[in-house]
Each structure stands twice: as C-alpha cells, then as structure tokens.
Amino acid sequence: EVQLVESGGGLVQPGGSLRLSCAASGFTFSSYAMNWVRQAPGKGLEWLSVISGNGRAIFYADSVRGRFTISRDDSKNTVYLQMNSLRAEDTAIYYCAKATRYGSGDTDSWGRGTLVTVSS
Amino acid sequence: EIVLTQSPASLSLSPGERATLSCGASQSVATSLAWYQKKPGQAPRLLIYDASDRATGIPDRFSGSGSGTDFTLTINGLEPEDFAVYYCQHYIYPPRTFGQGTKVEIK
Q1: DSSP conformation class of A31
Q2: DSSP A52-112
C-alpha cells in the first residue's frame, strides 16, 4: 500500500524558514516524480513544485520560485520542500503527491498534509 | 501560465441526480487534464486522468470528457459521499495549475 507522510510543519514568523519532509513507502520511490501542493485556509488547491524520479527535472510555481526548493533523497524514500522567506500568504496545508505512472503528470496518492502557519 | 476556469462555482443537487462540471483552459492542454475530489480534512482523491480515464477504484458513475480547452466531469446518480469540491488540473507543462474548484452541495 502506498503511504505518504508529511512532517515539518508548524508556526514560523514572517521571513523565517521551514523544511517539510514527505516519507514514502509502498512503491519504488526512485521511479516516480513527486509533487508538492498546498491549500490555504478557505482557498483552493495550488500546485507548487515537482521533481522527477531521477531528480534532474525540477519546476516551480511562480509564487514560490526563488524561495522554495524541492529535493529528494532516494536512499531515505523522502522528498523535501525547503521554504525560505516565508510570508503570511504561505499559510496553508502542504501536501506531497506521487505521480500516477512513470512520466505522468497526474497524481494518484497524496499524504494527509502538514500545516504551516506564518504569523508573528 | 495556463489558467483553468471551472463552472459553475457551486452546484446544488439531490442524491440520484446528475452533476455536470466544466473546466475551461486558457490554451490547449490536449488531454493532459485530471479531476480531483476534495473533502474537508481529507487529501485530494484522483478521479480522472488524461481527461477521460478513470483512476483505479473510481466508480463508473464518474466520467470525464473533452480535449483541447473544454472539459467536463459528469457524475451520474449522485451518492451521498459525492458531495464535495471538485478540481481540475492540467499537466501539459509546468506550472501545473488547478482550477478554482466547483462545490457540489446537497439540495
């Protein structure tokens, strides 16, 4: 069974940093692209970033490019999201999501999310 | 950036009725479009990928159609568990934007 478990969320002051982790199990982690998506309170889903299975292709949404960095450690079956220069508008539940198939853009498995609150 | 516009914003229907949700893209995404169901406190659930293929375990009352810039998600015979928010997402190239969502409410 595929499992994705996010961690690392919490309360941080504006301008601060956090690193989110997503621990994966139940599939061959290195074969799949991994995404980060967030949902701010009362808002819709926002795609943030994707990293390919081999880690060589990385893309970001404009809203986080230059502030957030996605990475993966296949030895730990974990994908990360380093978040710097955090703003109040970054307050959201952050989800990691696994690509459905090798090379696909849709995502069939999601974690339960981790809450990030940016506030002074 | 491709903008996805979903309509209507909300839909009020009774169990057993048909729901028809639309998603329009600001430029062609071919068939690189997925539909997700989102309930409060739960992770999103993939329903449809590649515009019309049902994801594993999704009941056949859910169907998707369309290509290019116009897409539809149809739910035939709404079940109580289907009342939720539905999002479309394209993945033809990054950024892989989502639509703003359609809320399907119980009438």
Answers
A1: G
A2: -TTS--EEE-TTTBTTEEEEEETTTTEEEEEE-S--GGG-EEEEEEEESSTT-SSEEEE--
- B54 — contact with chain A (CB < 8 Å)? no
**What is the Cα–Cα distance from B82 to B37, expressed in whole angstroms?**
8
* CB of B49 closer than 8 Å to CB of B58: no
**Sign of the alpha-carbon torsion through A101, B49, A1, A110:** positive
d(CA A97, CA A63): 19
From residue A28, give the alpha-carbon distance in Å to each of A75, A104, B36, B89: 11, 15, 24, 25
Per-residue pLDDT of chain A (120 residues; tens, 9 = 90+): 999 999 999 999 999 999 999 999 999 999 999 999 999 999 999 999 999 999 999 999 999 999 999 999 999 999 999 999 999 999 999 999 999 988 888 999 999 999 999 999
Q: Which of A60, A106, A113 faces B43 most closely, judged by CB atoms?
A: A113
